[in-house]
Amino acid sequence: VKSIVEALVLVFRNITSEGFQPVMKLPIAVGSAFEGWSHREEDIVYRLFVPLSPPSGHTFHLELDTEGEKMERNFRIHVKLTCTCASEPQEMLCFLHHPEEELRRNQKPSLLESQVFCTGSYLDVNKTARWFYQLVRASWVILPQSAIWRLKMLPFDRSCKFQMKRNSASPLTVELMFGVQQGKSNIFVGNQSAEGIFTPSTTWPETYAVAETKFLSHIAEKAHKDSFHLKCLQICSCSLVGTGVSSYIMKTVVMHLLTIISISRWRRKYFLLRLQDIMRFLHSCLEDKCLNHFFLGNKNLPAEIKLPLGFPMTEPINLFQHLEQDPDAHAEALRNFRVLHE
User: Fold this and answer.
1) What burial class does residue 59 get, using C-beta atoms within 10 Å of its C-beta: 0-12 exposed, 13-18 middle, 19+ buried?
2) Which residues form the Mab-21-like HhH/H2TH-like domain (predicted)?
3) What would the pLDDT profile of 237-274 be if each residue is shown by its tens digit?
4) For residue 260, what are the CA distances in angstroms to 86, 137, 221, 266?
5) What predicted TM-score, i.e. pTM, was given to this entire model?
6) Which of 309, 328, 243 is closest to 279 using CA atoms?
7) Range list of H helices, 56-197
């Protein structure tokens, strides 16, 4: 799957080489399917994250939304034109300092002029998703793999999804995620938003998908070959289906414990003990109505995880904040956990 998407992105680059569009970097495989802990084969979605950078003559400025108390950090991506007069060689006209008539006659419109990607002066998630959707459809027939795999595009809103099917095998579902990197860190602002919550199309929530995959890869490098940490995550995540505790909550719990319990203690012979630790930790968090976000404000992360400046000092987000605010939801969560435990 990853190799096919990489080939698609290379075709995208050729198609979009003329004009001014966001510049795509090679996709990064993220999520449970690539990390190795998907629990239901029929529900597997292969997620790949495509980093975007500004085209020549443009800059992306990330603006943090500080209004209200939120469960996630949201940004807007302000697109600004920048002077290219001093660039060598002089391959393009400067959007800021060349006459408008000359620009219209001799150069493709800027991101701000075309409004294909922007709403006003801000990068638009839905418009960018539509661009990816159109690129996939146009590029698929060029790929050699299209002779073997059939493509089916799925409805899109804030991301681009499609299925690939080969002969009588079950189709593989692929989701192209995209976003902008915060500095040189492993933290991005991306297209995905919380389910069931309206998110304006110019709002880009902070995403930790790349950092999570890098953290689990770092653990895998240190782990013994019979380490069962991913199997523990898979089993616990599967057992909590229908209880109101999401797989992301379980992943957060396990990642916290991986920084607390030595990786040598996650081998096969400690399997049952680690399952008990996971469920105890989750129960304690449910009782306290508090589960801190894994990256925000966490000072125990390995140095290999690159964070934005000041990130470890950021106030942690409580992923169980809704349980603090809703006593009925808290009581139901504890009830569901007891039923599961029994």
Assistant:
1) exposed
2) 244-302
3) 988 877 878 999 999 999 999 999 999 999 999 999 99
4) 52, 46, 17, 11
5) 0.93
6) 243
7) 100-106, 111-114, 125-140
CB atoms within 10 A of CB 21: 22
Q: Which helix (H) or strand (E) holds 72?
A: none
Per-residue pLDDT tens over the stretch 318-341: 999 999 999 999 999 999 888 776
Place of tokens 């920084």: 259
Give Cα 97 to chain centroid, integer Å. 37
Tell whether 85 and 22 lie within a shared domain: yes
Alpha helices in the chain (DSSP H): 2-15, 32-35, 100-106, 111-114, 125-140, 209-222, 229-239, 247-260, 271-288, 321-325, 327-341
What residue type is 59 in one-letter code? Answer: T
pLDDT at 9: 92
Bridge-based pairing state of the strands 45-53 and 23-24: antiparallel
Give me 111's structure tokens. Answer: 């991101």
pLDDT-derived band of residue 69, with 50, 70 and 90 as boundaries? low
193 and 69 both lie in a single domain: yes
Q: Are 30 and 177 in contact (CB under 8 A)?
A: yes
Q: Are residues 153 and 65 in the same domain?
A: yes
For residue 207, give the 3-state DSSP assignment. Answer: strand
Beta-carbon contacts of 89 under 8 Å, excluding residues fewer than 6 positions away, are none
Q: Is residue 194 domain-shared with residue 226, that is, in the same domain?
A: no
Helix (H) or strand (E) holding 227: none
Domain boundary among 207, 232, 252: 207
What residues make up the domain containing 9?
Answer: 2-207
Q: What are the tokens at 275? A: 């399952």
Pairing state between β 28-30 and 23-24: unpaired
In the chain, how many domains are there?
2
Sign of the CA dihedral running 245, 247, 248, 250: positive
Nearest CA among 22, 121, 116, 24 for reference residue 80: 121
